[in-house]
Each structure stands twice: as C-alpha cells, then as structure tokens.
Amino acid sequence: MLLSIKNIHASVEGKQILKGINLDIRPGEIHAIMGPNGSGKSTLASVLAGREDYEVTEGSVDFDGKDLLSLSPEDRAREGLFLAFQYPVEIPGVSTTNFMKAALNEKRKYNGQEPLDAVSFLKVMKEKVELVEINRSLLSRSINEGFSGGEKKRNEIFQMAMLEPKLAVLDETDSGLDIDALRIVANGVNKLRTPERGVIVITHYQRLLEYLQPDFVHVLVDGRIVKSGTKDLALELEEKGYDFIKDEINLTATV
Amino acid sequence: MEKNSLTYLEDKFNELQSLNKGDALEALRESGFKAFTEAGIPNYKNEEWKYTKINNLFDKEYDLTEDLSSSSITTEDVDAVRLPGHENANEVVFVNGKFVQELSTIRSNTKQLVVLPLEEAAKGEYKELVTAHLNKSSLFIKDGIHALNTSFIYGGIFIYVAKDQIVDEPVFLYHIADSRKNHTLLQPRSLVFVDKNAKLQLVENYTTIGSMESFTNEVIEAVVDTNAIFEYYKIQNDLANASQVGTTHIRQIGKSYVHTFTVSLNGATIRNNIDIVMEAAGNEAHMYGLYLLKGKTHVDNHTLVDNTLPNCFSNEFYKGVIDDYATGVFSGKIFVRADAQKTNAYQSNKNILLSDNATVNTKPQLEIFADDVKCSHGCTVGQLDNEALFYLRSRGISADEAQAMLLQAFAADIVEQVKLEPLRNYVEKLITERLSVN
User: What's the sign of the alpha-carbon dihedral A203, A205, A209, A214?
Assistant: First the structure.
C-alpha cells in the first residue's frame, strides 16, 4: 500500500471538518475525490501535506511505511508527497529555478544522494519543461508573481515533474482554468503517470477526470467518504448532482 | 553625568585649540564648541531623538588624543579591513577619526581626484570652496552632537573631483577605530565637492579593532554641482561595541544626480542622518537602505529631502529585518517648499519583525507647501507570510531555509541598488551569511 488513511478526524480552529476518512491507495492508482463545497476535500489535502492550523484529533496515515502525521511538511515532501496547491502562492524575489534547485537538492540530501551540480540540474529542468509544456521564461521569474491562473497551475505540475513524488495530491488543480489550459495541465499529469506513482485528484467537476481517467472515484460529504466507485460514478454525479447521493444517504439512514 | 562629560570634553577642546592656534579652522571649531555647550547632547525631549538614546554613550571617558603615534595601526591592519574586489580603489584611511596619509593610497590621477587634509585645503588653492561649503550642514542640524564634531574638526579631509572628470575608481573611506587600549571617540570630518559634469563613487566602511568601545561621530558634507553624479555607499558591519552617529549632508547645488545606499548589519547604537538639499531645479536623488538587526543593535535611519526649487525627483526606499532584542527606527522627512512646484517625492519603509522582543519605530513624514506636487509615503511592519513559508516547505525546504529564502528575497531589491559590482557581491555575501541557517 502506498497510502493508507485510517479513520482520520481533523478540525480547524476547533471546528470538526473530517469525521472519519478511510482511504487506501496502491502504487500507480489515480483516485478522484469529489464532493460539494465545504465537504472537507481541501482539508484532507492540507492534513496530508501538514499545513499548520489543521489538527488531527483521531486516526492515522501510513505513507509507504512511514507515519506521515509525525513528519514535518518538508520531510513529507522529501519522503515523496507532493501537494499541487489550489491557490499557488506568489513569492516575489525567489525564482522558480532557484526554488526547484534548492528543493530538489534538499530531497536528494534527505535520501542520501549527492546534490545536483548546475549543469545536471539544468538538464533535468530542460526535460521537465518539455514534458509539461511550460514556458521556460516563467521559470526565471519570481515564483508565480504576475502569472495567469493557467500559468500558476502549470507551474505546479512542473514542480511535480521536477520532484518526482511517490504520491501527488492535486487540490482543485482544474479550478480557474479554461479548456485549453485544462487540457495542457491534464496532459502533464498523464505524462507523469507511472506504475509506481499514486495520484489523488480533488475536483468539483467531471471535466478533468475525462482526461485523467481515474481508477476510483470517491464522494466526500460532510467529512466522510459516503460513496466510492469507478469513473462512472463521476459521470453519474455530473448528471444528477450531489443531491442524489445525499438522498441515498438519508435513505440509508432511515432504513 | 552629562555635566561631567562636558567638562572633560571642554579640556580636550581647549587642548586642541591651543595646539593648533591660528590654523584656518580655529574659528569654526570655536563656534562649534559654543553651539555644543548651548545645545548639549540631544535626548528624548528633542523630537528628532525620541527613539534613539545617545547620552548613555557619554557616561565614559573616551580617548580623543590627537597624537596618532600612539596608535599602532599598520598597513597589515588596512589590508585586513579592505573590502574584497576593490583592491584598485582609492583608499582614504582614517584612524581614530583622523586622516592618515601614510596608510592611504590615491590611485586616480590628480587631474581627476584631489584628496587633501582639510586644514591644508582650507588655506590653499581650494580655500574659497572650503570656506563656502564647510559646515553648511549646521544651518540644518542644530543639535549638540553635530556641533561636537565641528568643535573637533581636525585631521579631516577635502575631496575634490574636477570639472568634467569621471573618477575611474571609487574612493573608499576606511575608518579604523583602535580600541585595544581605550574607549575611543572618533570624529571624522570630510568635505566633498563634485564639480560640474563630474562623477564620484564614495564608499564608507567602519572597523573597530579591540574590545573597548568605539563611538564614531562623523560628519560628511558633499556638494554636487550641475550635471554631476554622486554615489554614496555606507557599509556598517562593525563590532557590537561600536556606536555611531553619522551625518551625511548632501547639497545638490546644480541639476544633478545623487544615489545613496546604507546597509547596517552589526553595531551597538547607530544613527544615520542622510540629508539631501535640492538647491537647484530638476535635481534627482535616490536613497536606499537595508538593516538586518539582531542582538541588541539599535539602528536609526533619519533622512531628509528638502525640495526648495521646482521639478525635483526623489525616491527613498528602506527595508529592515529585526530580530532578537534589536530596534530599528526610520524617520523620513520630505519638505516641499512653496517654490518647489512639480516635485515628485516618494518614500517607503518596510519592516519584518522576527521576534516578539524586536521593535521598530517608523515615521514617514511629508511637509508640503506647494500645490502642484506628487508625493507619497508609506510604511509597513509585519511578519513573514506563513502561506509562503508553507509553500516552500511543502516542496522539501526546511523551515529555517524557507525563512532565509524569503528574507533574502525581501532584501534583494535593495541590495541590487549597489552599482559597484564587487561591492554588491560583497554585500550579498554578508547578507547570505547573516541569513543562512548553517
């Protein structure tokens, strides 16, 4: 098992958001998590990445044999977890190139590898630039500063390509993208699919999933996964909306 | 306390006057001492000194000896303080506040650049210039600490850049305080004249040797004539026992260009006054400052831009990062006099506090008496952006490293204002070292 989430309860500022999440991801699988606003999708992403202010009150997460929740955000990244942000942060004065060089070498150091020299690093970067179709000139600019929505998201996928994570969590990567940008981002993710790499795609819409073809789709409502299925579930949701699931739950509850 | 120090300084003053009876600067010193006696050491009651205390610097006796043979600063010491990459610069060495010709090296030819002891300049070929411009700053700065410098004008320098001359190498003023045996009070005084169509790059650096305290009370007056360019850099990375009150008074008497840069990294109590007086229409001035403070360092940047005539432009940008128990003060004043229509004057001060015990007092001020001007001022005090820190950490960068990256980025747009490349590299290196985790 690559990732095993067991009975996770989490709260933000005292408010319980996640109320017992269970999820297992095997290497190579793509899992989509869908659900209405406020159901806890992004909270789950934040808990996995280790964002402060999110308190896990119950449960455990095993990540490739490590107790994920005991690790700092940086160590989670070095172990191979990657979060593509819903709202990538603008950081004036730090170029994406320098950022990635520092990040990649921190990860290598953690894993007992020698840091990459400038030439090898640029070689890796060139490969990944082509892979995810990002405009190279963006990378020498300050991180995300003045980038369009699409450029920011593409930069996230570029970073994912550079860091080659074991597990990538894409938090509403499709939000704010037009059709063309969506296709490019999805192509980037598809090219990064390997038999080893797991992906969690958090999204509202079926659109991205058409490109990504997930192995599983889970529906998150009020802090719990209430339904899991194949990619057909996403189509059903698109057609009927989330209400049909809620109705189903209510039905089950009353039975 | 103050009374005692006054008496002790008076003895020193009388000694200096009797030793140099009849020299060209005797009357000036006399007037300085009179002003000092009347004004005294400034304290918190003076609005301009509200946040910076210096009277406690006068609770000890300083060595003020005029006899340089008592100091054993050698050329090896000068080699040790020289900033990297500027081995070919013109070097003016001050020891304990006095110009030491034997340790100084002027490499540019004398057609371009003249460096003379102030006493000599005041009576020779440059007598008129010196008489016209020396101590004009006292018309603007009335406090006692400035007058104290004037009381002890001796061993200063006159720097002259001739008309149409671009000085090919910068001039470095290396101030060395020999505090191995005694507490030292240094009162360097310089007058700089950049003539029409000329260019000068001036760098000041301060080094204290020894574990006793040093206190530098410096006045430098620069006069910039029509079409001239004056760049001024001040590097403050001295020991924690080194205090300083430094006044840089720049007068742009013809339409000219001035660029100043001050970086403060280490020291005890530091006060920097940078005043720019626009005495001609169409002047342009840029002032940049960066202070990265830790321990108990106190740095006060006081600036003044006085627009007296139309169409002047000034832009001022200071940034600070304050840690531990350190204090940063910024006070920027822009005057726009009634005749100074079409003035463009901008001012900004941004601060990041890294500790609960760090303090910043920031006070941008505009006083406008003309009605057709563009002026803005602003200041911010804040902490590092947690979202940015998390973003960096989420890619595998440690919390400390992430903080260093963000702070370095914060400082970067000020550092790039150093136009001398080796100096910029040096400042960058100092900042990286300061911010680096290991």
Answer: positive
pLDDT for res A215: 96
What are the beta bridge partners of residue A24? A4
C-alpha span between B374 and A145 (Å, rounded): 28
- Tell me if the pTM is above 0.80: yes
Question: How far is the CA of B337 from the CAs of B215, B309, B334, B356, B368, in angstroms?
Answer: 35, 7, 10, 41, 6
In the predicted structure, residue B438 carries a pLDDT above the cut 80: no
Interatomic CA distance for residues A86 and B394, integer angstroms: 13
Starting at the earlier edge strand, list the strands of the sheet with A66-67. A15-25, A3-12, A54-63, A66-67
CA–CA separation, B151 and B36 (whole Å): 8
Integer angstrom CA distances of residue A90 from A44, A177, B76, B320: 23, 18, 48, 21
- Kind plus residue range of the DSSP H or E element containing B219: strand B214-224
pLDDT in tens, B239-292: 999 999 999 999 999 999 999 999 999 999 999 999 999 999 999 999 999 999
The amino acid at A56: V
What pLDDT, on the 0 to 100 scale, is given for residue B1?
A: 42
Å from A188 to nearest chain B CA?
18
- Asked if A159's CB is within 8 angstroms of B393's CB, the reply is no
- How far is A184 from A190, CA to CA, in rounded Å? 10
In this complex, the residue of A52, A72, A159 whose CB is nearest that of residue B395 is: A159
Backbone torsion region of residue A59, taken as left when φ is above 0, otherwise alpha when ψ lies between -120 and 50, otherwise beta: left
- Chain A residues with CB inside 8 Å of B392's CB? 91, 94, 99, 103
Q: What is the mean pLDDT of residues A49-73?
A: 96
